[in-house]
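Can't paste images in this forum, so I'm doing it all in text. The chain is below; anyone willing to post the predicted structure tokens underneath?
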Amino acid sequence: MVPVMMIGLRRLSVILTLSMACLSACKAGRQAATPQTTINAPEGGQIVYGAVAGATTQPAAMAKLLSSVQAQCGEKPQIGRVFQFRGTNSVGVFFSVTNRPQGNVRVAGLVIANATGPGQVEAALLSDDASRFGKTVNPMLKQLFGVWHPDAVAATASSASGKNSARGSVPSLHKVILPDRTASVSIPEGWRVDPVSGGGGMLIRGSQGEVVILNSMFLAQDPNGSAFRNAQRMGMKPMRGMIVYPANADLVQNYAQIIQLLARAKGFVPASLKIDYAEHVSPPPGSSFQGERCALATGQIDPDGKGMQHMFRVLCASSPDQFGDYHFLDYVAYFPKTEPGLANAVAGAIFSSFYVDMALVAQRANAEAAPHIARLKQVDAAQRQAVQANTARIVGNIKQIGANATARMKAVEAANDAQHAQWNAGQDANARNSQGFSNYLLDQTVVQDNNMYGNGTIGHGTLWNTTADALVKANPNRFEYVDKPNYWQGTDYHK
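Text version of the structure:
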């Protein structure tokens, strides 16, 4: 299962913003005395185009249309970087916004502006429900440029699907919902959601070797926080899979280093990595908790030793608690064969459509954890009763022995030895159960390697469930699951 643990479009021509998470069309407000035309696209969405009153430059025209969106929707749109349509004088910018008056419906759109003469500008606004925008934007562009020809602009739908060098257009997307109904996403035809997905996280595989991971969570601890300092004083090591990193670190400046830490947390060797671009962005629509700081990056990465791939990635960090504990959320897409501009557009469209039902995630997690918690409470109650009964026996023995100091001391020592042995046994059982429960929550499994160095040496390791399942299925004679009673102290758990 992808952890519930680890995005609109921020930049076009190098990147798309990950804020494109806001759905359903806010209608652009009409400027006074402005000859604008409105078209309802047959495949969905709305087109508004024409002259923009009072605008003498392309930025001014775009700003006026975006201001009208803000007035209609009740919040400021999140916008990406301005880009130029290939072979034209038109510039555009993608945006996303939440339509507050219409029940917080998410909207995605595109604003285009073209200077038609000195001090003269025409502009167009395309918008639709964000879950459909990846599918309807190209038909809307074709329809728009079939009737709108500012300064004889000859633009095509494909020129707006990525950066200037992009080839092809964003493919049509269709919505899929996880079997446990905790999350949904829109993906291209021929792509599939891996069955290991669940609990609000997704692993998606494309038809050309693409891999998309959404909402992967990593536990983290601030080295300046009290939890880490106390653990250091007690000689305790961080939990397996936990990242130790300053909670106030700038995500953009430290992007590459954090990615390598994420890889090590999953047991992978550091990957070959090149960051081409990075910037701060708003939290993605599928974010699992509040207070995140997020950064978007594109570049090249070799995640599996098979060669460099294009990477489109959003990394978020939560605010630390009073002890310095926090989380990272990772959203990443790898494209081994796709041109970067088109890869950014496809990844951005997928990320923007991702939605997590956190209430259902919490409900299912609580239901699954309830019997384990109840069992732990039963064990704790039994141990308390045993300690109380043992203490009562000790007191009774002391009173009965009376003045016989030697006999009394031996009775006390025997009772204490029994108590300590029982307590140690209980602590060992608690440690095993706690580690097993922690592994369950973190989607981890202890695996035994029966031929660790090729010479029959047996070893243990705690791995992510997806990795553990892959190893056992690939070589069941060598790898096998380890149950709690067979955990190795000091390796699989610590008392």
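The first helix runs from residue 58 to 73. The first strand starts at residue 36 and ends at 40.
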